[in-house]
Amino acid sequence: MAGLAFDGANPDVSLLYDINGLAKDAPSWFDRAMEFIGEYGILLGLVLVVLWCWWSVRRGEDRRSAVASVAGIVWAPLAAAIAVLVNIPIRGFVQRPRPFVDHKGLDVLIAGKSDFSFVSDHSTIAMAIGAGLFVANRKFGLIALGLALLEGFCRVYMGVHYPTDVVGGFALGTAVVLLLAPLAQLLLTPVVAAVARSPRLGLLVHSRKALTVVAAAPGAVERPESEERDLAA
To answer: Which residues is 212 bridged to in the sheet?
Structure first.
């Protein structure tokens, strides 16, 4: 991919050296920590945020709202998987080498990266999950977006991606989430609703203590499911 020019210099490469240069001045234990965080830690953290969001939603919302929210939560990791698949032909078309191939003096924290650089899979996955969760739940979405930004920084810090690789990953992940969200909700909501009606699998969508709307008439109040069953008896 052609570099951007600014006053005869490439700001993409300049920013790469500036961020990766921090690794040269950092102690070795910090670099090892950043290597783990950037390669595995943040992705694991995002999985935990998704699970935390799901657990919170199923416990704190009425059944009807929980169905829509859980469908949105499920869409986040699915969107990340789709975005990675979309990135396969993009990488093959652009064929941008890793930055350490063309630029000397970088402190590369992780070896064995021989595939193409644009777009960053890690940044794509992280931002897709972050954007997907933000659509489903603002609070947990902000946490996930913060982790996604940190992931992008780590990939450049580690010397395995250009800043524009990260920006491209952010754009790809966000685009997949937002463009396919209407179709995803249309397909996922009935599935989640069917799971919610199941006597056993329904706990995946709402807890036993979830509140449900008992009546559709004006002035209807929300009661716990246990109280609803007592009234029905």
So the answer is: 223
